[in-house]
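Contributing new records

If you add data, match the layout below exactly. Sequence lines come first and carry their own label; structure lines follow with theirs. Keep one chain per record. Anything else will be rejected by the validation script.
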Amino acid sequence: MELEKCKHSNDCGGCIYQGVPYQEQLELKAKLVLNLLKENNITYDRFLGIEGSPKQFRYRNKMEYTFGDEEKGGEMTLGLHKLGRFMSIITTDQCQLVDDDFNKVLRKTLSFCKEKGYPFYHKKTHKGLMRHLVLRKGENTKELLINIITTTQAEFDREAYVKAIEEIELENLHIVGILHTENDRLSDAVNCDRMTILKGRDYYNEELLGLTFKVSAFSFFQPNVLATEKIYTEAISMIDDLNGKTVFDLYSGTGTISQAIARSAKQVIGIEIVEEAVEAAKENAKINGLDNCKFIAGDVLKVLDEIEEKPDCIVMDPPRSGIVPKALNKILKYGVNQTVYVSCNPKTMAQNLATAIEQGYKVNSVKVFDNFPNTKHVETVALMSKK
């Protein structure tokens, strides 16, 4: 599917590859990863190329929109930060990375707030009512969760907002929850002091690799589900035989790959520092009838000192900042024959792989995945083994 160049592309800055043929995008991203490996002196047995996303557009399942203005004193906007201008917000109601139903909800929400005369929250003065709009959907279930975030500085007409949203004629999605979150913290982040369910429920369901996941309003979930399925399938296939093995899933998030592995392994132990993600992982494991998953909340560096189990293989999916040296050294000391590194930042991955090579590991294979077409982001999976 090819679309005309997005009308927001000159101001938004999110899609730096807008207008670049998709095959060329893939080649650029593969070259980026190869160059980073070369710069860090990473040798590897096989480079398996790059795999594109099943969808080049409309693939994002979550968006956080901000209320503001594009020009100081201008009319209220709702959307994303303008490129290079933190205080400016542009109304991105024709974004091509999201389901067009997201654009409809954005437009309706903005017109509702304008009609009511609600002021947006100003980052410098800390005055105003409207802060964010967060939309989340199930790619495979078509469930839509709407969360409007305000301060408590004025009354927000919840009943009228629900009525306005119900007037929208959605094409692809169906609303399962409308939420109102109150946040009086000074930072620009989407935080929750109190959340009220205005209609429906506070979560949506998603299906991934034949498993069901309950995704709550504030829990992390992979933004491009169809592409994530391809990454996880590749990562799991890199392990020779899971039967009878104990697998450590480090930086496990909500336990998606843990549960996919658990269907074949003897035991999976997931470690994740975000407590809410760990609780979600436990709940989802119950939903999927998996009793051989154990999820531990805590810093990988500390938790590895506290658990008695020893891994037969390790899967790790660290944050963009990569793995800190002390934690990486502790992981490498296990000396397991197969370690799978899933990365959302090839730069920090290359640095971590260089450390592993210094400590007697070899990189068997590397494969790149384009989870975020039209943007600069890229994912990589690497298999390491102890020499």
